[in-house]
Amino acid sequence: MSSAPLAYSVSARADAHGALLRAAGDDLALETRWQPDAPSTHPGPAELLAGAFAACLLKNVARSSALLPFAYESAQVEVTMHRQDAPPRFTALEYTLHLVTAEPAHRVELLHRNLQKFGTVYTTLAAVCEVTGTVTTSAPAG
pTM for the full model? Predict the structure, then answer.
């Protein structure tokens, strides 16, 4: 039995003063100006894509905590994306996911495999560029 595909919608607008993305009832200022030497004050498309990947990992850690179950206190992820100019595309994505957990190493590895296999943004990006990452852990305080 397969379920109907999900759809996700956002809206965005830009003018001479800035740009705004509206998603899930929240507004997020965007960097859409073309000023190569000016510092960016808001996330642009590349940061949003890296952020979507980070959110995918974090959401699937939360999902796995309920399904496996997998106990953790907190999760933090760092993502770096690499792009080339010609042709313009992302060539690689690297991440480090850090978990505060008392789970044994084999359970952490199971979680990592599930993130790689079932994360929608993860699998989509892995289909078009190299995705590599590690999961590190530290024990809960106390």
Answer: 0.92
Determine if residue 19 is left, alpha or beta; phi over 0 gives left, psi from -120 to 50 gives alpha, anything else beta: beta
Choose among 65, 58, 48: nearest CA to 119: 58
pLDDT mean for each 10 residues of the chain (142 residues): 81 92 95 80 93 97 93 98 96 98 97 96 97 98 85
CB atoms inside a 10 Å sphere around CB 101 = 22
